[in-house]
UniProtKB/TrEMBL annotation, chain A:
The keyword Cell membrane applies. It comes from Thalassobaculum litoreum DSM 18839. This is Amino acid/amide ABC transporter membrane protein 1, HAAT family (TC 3.A.1.4.-). CDD domains: TM_PBP1_LivH_like. One of its GO terms (molecular function) is transmembrane transporter activity. Keywords: Amino-acid transport, Cell membrane, Membrane, Transmembrane, Transmembrane helix, Transport.
TrEMBL record, chain B:
GO terms for molecular function: branched-chain amino acid transmembrane transporter activity. This is Amino acid/amide ABC transporter membrane protein 2, HAAT family (TC 3.A.1.4.-). The chain crosses the membrane at residues 41-58, 64-83, 95-112, 118-137, 149-173, 200-218, 246-268, 288-310, 322-339, 359-382. It is found in: Cell membrane.
Amino acid sequence: MVELVIFSLLNGLVTGLLLFMLSSGLTLIFSMMGVLNFAHASFYMLGAYFAYTISTYVGFWPGLIVAPLLVGLAGALVERYGLRHVHRHGHVAELIFTFGLAFLIEEIVQFFWGKATKDYSAPELLQFPLFTLYGQNFPAYKAFMILISVGIFIGLFTVLSRTRVGLIIQAAITHPHTVSNLGHNVPLVFMGVFGVGSALAGLAGVIAGPALGTFPGMAFVLGSIVFVVIVVGGLGSLPGAFVASLLIGWLQTFAIALDWSVSDLLDILGISFDSEHVLRDLWTLSLPQVAPILPYILLVLILIFRPRGLMGKRET
Amino acid sequence: MSATETGSAATGKSGDRTGAEPAWKRVADDQMRRGAFRRTLPVWGAAFVVLMIMPLLFSSAVGVTIMNQMGISIVFALSYNMLLGQGGMLSFGHAVYFGLGGFLSVHVMNYVEYDGWWLPLPLLPFVGGLFGLAFAVPIGSFSTRRAGTVFAMISLGVGELVAACSIIFVAFFGGEEGVSGDRTMGPPVFGSEFLSEVEVYYLIAGIVLVAALFMYLFSRTPAGRMANAVRDNEERAEFVGYSQRYVRFVSFCASGFFAGMAGGLFAINYEILTEENLNLVTSGWVLLMAFIGGVGFFVGPIVGAIVLTLLQTVLSNHTELWQLYVGILFVLTVMYAPRGLTGLVAMHGPALRTGRLGILARAYGAAVVPLLAFLAGVVLLLEMGNVANQSVVGESEAHVFGLTLDVSTVAPWLVALALAAGGGYALVRLAPRLRDAFARATGQAGAAS
């Protein structure tokens, strides 16, 4: 039981921090531009694929730097030539645009890299168990993922709260017109934030590709969970996104690890049931089975009972 | 039309907070004025005639299959547009009502077969619709609180939730293989047991007509008109004395009903439903159909359903890149033609009325060849690129437009590149003349958008 809890805590931390790398960019973009970027997870996927291609030529480490930069550039171009063009039609049109973009990027990835999972693996330098506990290994690569994510978190926090650029960004979130009147180029700030947000997603893809697999559906798998994270955390709130990322990371890993089912509960209560009953699926429901839907249940509950999210300041 | 546009311009200022009214939202209101329904009667008559003679024109088995699929898509896309086009609610989970209506219809079909329930098949879509409604009521009760982004998020969450449930509850959803039934076991209707595809076609055609008519009539009821008002400016609608939430709720429930009907039609046509029918892919597909067709028009989703079903069934036989083309089409529509294909056609209305379509025809005529060259070049490049990227070593033949091209040689690439570049360049050169011709034909300066 103890090792179960420890490993679930660690794995949940890895998932949660990964989610945070995506959700931090998404929530920043949302709070500035009011756009929920449906294609955010697609940039994550692009990051993994770019890094894969780079790694086949020059190895893993250059890809760690170059791929996020390329993805950031792609994001900035999308903002400049796509989103800004659609902006005048309102937020719903922007949401539809990013949805179409997500659809298109998945097709483009299949065009260039095919449908099969790519053999993108962790560098050999990190392919060893960091420590062994109760006979289970904890891979060094996961520790590396934690390290990178925490580094990004600290870096982001420092930039936003300590630098001039960060102050302008924070001001542009709440008062874009005032910032513009003070002589700052707000569209440029928007483009920059969109680019940096995409680059963060790309970096998440680079480090998640070897661990979670690099395949055309990877954006789809993570995309809606990231939405859940930023809504649960409170739209536009970075600390909220952080808390919600970890919460959902742990929620999922613990649900998979703990094999409890409704029938166990019924056994304890001394209730028996007919195995041919119409509701038989309900009786035998177990936690690992419902693990994929827990985030969405949380989302719906939050939207009903606390629409501004855990730490959001405004009602969504 | 002009009346709506002035209205939107006036409310544009408050748009920052309540969401600006984009051009694609404006409904072509010519046809919606009081007493205008009688004027649309010939259109409904023509639709009836067309639906009746279609199987005579396209009598092949493939043709009938495609038309059946179109009919289902038309009802589904129209029901989606009750949310997006008429109510301003962007849903990413509309397949939930379609799928659940369909699943329950198959179950009812099985009850008819095994438990001797009495239900003529033409009534089954209405049963599916009631089930769609039954799910739309509880979900709509909390999701219609707000429109815009929040509604989109809730619909996505609910959509994912139901899709995930469909894998867990095997007894109801049948797991991976889905639930299947047999439509022929009900009491015969006019001597028909719906054994053949054509009989099913006439059933679907009838339901499509009835459903479309009712959806059109709904858009003209006070509930439908208030849905437009709430879409355009929810604050003003509240000042008139309507609860924006309740207005959206009514539209949402009606939309769920018709989506369930489409699901019932799907159950009749395919006799099987799987998890795919209610997941996010289907929800996205209906958004594509409605938007590419044009959400600002009642006929928009019909056009979209027909075009995309054709792409899905015909184009997919010729190229494995068809989804890439659909994606490109969708993104281009969102960026450059936000009122959809119907909007592109409707744009020429003023020119038609003033009899100045001839000016445009000449300009378009000059652009046809460069456009075709450009498209052919791009398609050739994509198809050859696909072969060069994906195929096994040694295989280097691309089959495009009935041609067989060897992608390992340079010549086809050069030709394709020349076509794309030459066509593209000519189009760019022609663009000012097109814009000028359009402005002259419609009698207004700078009306190119």
